[in-house]
Amino acid sequence: MKRFILAITGASGTRLGLRLLAELTKRAEVYLVISSSAITILKEEDGIDLLGKNKEEILRELSGFINGKVHYFTEKELDAPIASGSFRTDGMFIVPCSMKTLSAISNGYASNLIERAADVIIKEKRPLILSPREMPLSPIHLDNMLKLSRLGVIIAPPVPAFYHKPENIDELLNFITGKLLDVVTIEHDLYKRWRQ
Ligand SMILES: Cc1cc2nc3c(=O)[nH]c(=O)nc-3n(C[C@H](O)[C@H](O)[C@H](O)COP(=O)(O)O)c2cc1C
Asked: Which DSSP string do the residues of the chain spell out, in sequence order?
C-alpha cells in the first residue's frame, strides 16, 4: 500500500484538501497535517470546526472525508515520523498551499512539521506536489514557484478547466483532484479525459 503525506495549509480552498483526502485514503495510507491557519479557514469556508479539538476528535470530525488509514499530526509535532528522511513515503501533497508555506519551502525554512516534511521530501528526491493558491501572483510568489519547479517540485495550482463541462462546484473540485492524482499515477475516474 502506498503512503502519502497530505498537508492542508491556510489558503482559500481548504475543501480541496479534504476532497483529496477522501480520494487518497481510498488507495493509500495518509499522514495528515493541517496548519493552524488552515483550521481557521476550514471553519470560515467549510463550517468545519477543529479548533481546540484533540486528534481523535479531529479524525471523528473529518470522518466523512476519510476512507482508509489516516495518521494525524499537528504542525507543531516536529518529532513525527514524517520529519525524518528515514521514514519512507511515496510523496507529499500540500493542498491548498499558502504563499507563506511556499516561501518557507523554497528557502529551506523548516519551522513547522509541514515545512520540515517538505524539506525532507526534497532532499530525499521524492515527489512533492504543491497546489499554491493566490491571485494575483507577485514576482515573489512566482520566483518561489520557479525555484521549486527547477528542483523537480510539481507546481499544480488549483486551476479548473471547462472542457469536461462542469455543472457545479463538486465537478470542478473533482477535476482538480483528479489532475493531482494523475501526477502520482493513482487511478481514478473523477473527470472525463479529453476525447476519451
Ligand atoms: C480566510 C483566509 C483566507 C486566506 N487565503 C489565503 C490564500 O488564498 N492564499 C494565501 O497564500 N494566504 C491566504 N491567507 C493567509 C494565510 O492563511 C497566512 O499567510 C498564514 O500565515 C498561512 O500559514 P500556513 O501556511 O502555515 O497555513 C488567508 C487567510 C485567511 C484568514
From this structure: -EEEEEEE-SSS-HHHHHHHHHHHHHHEEEEEEE-HHHHHHHHHHH----TT--HHHHHHHTGGG--S-EEEEETT-TTSGGGSTTS--S-EEEEEE-HHHHHHHHTT---SHHHHHHHHHHHTT--EEEEE--SSPPHHHHHHHHHHHHTT-EE-------TT---SHHHHHHHHHHHHHHHTT----SSPPTT-
170 lines ligand 1 (CB under 6 A): no
pLDDT at site 192: 87
- What's the 5 CA to ligand 1 centre distance in angstroms? 20
> What's residue 195's pLDDT?
84
pLDDT tens per residue across span 103-117: 999 999 999 999 999
What domains can you pick out in the chain, each with its CATH number?
Answer: 2-183 (3.40.50.1950)
Which pLDDT tens digit goes with each residue over 68-78? 999 999 999 99
Q: Whose CA is nearest to atom 7 of ligand 1?
A: 11
State the pTM of this model.
0.98
Q: Is the CB of 10 under 6 A from ligand 1?
A: yes
Best residue among 16, 39, 98 to mutate for probing ligand 1, ranked by most atoms within 8 Å of CB: 98
Mean pLDDT over residues 8-27, rounded? Answer: 97
Separation of CA 98 and ligand 1 centre (Å):
6
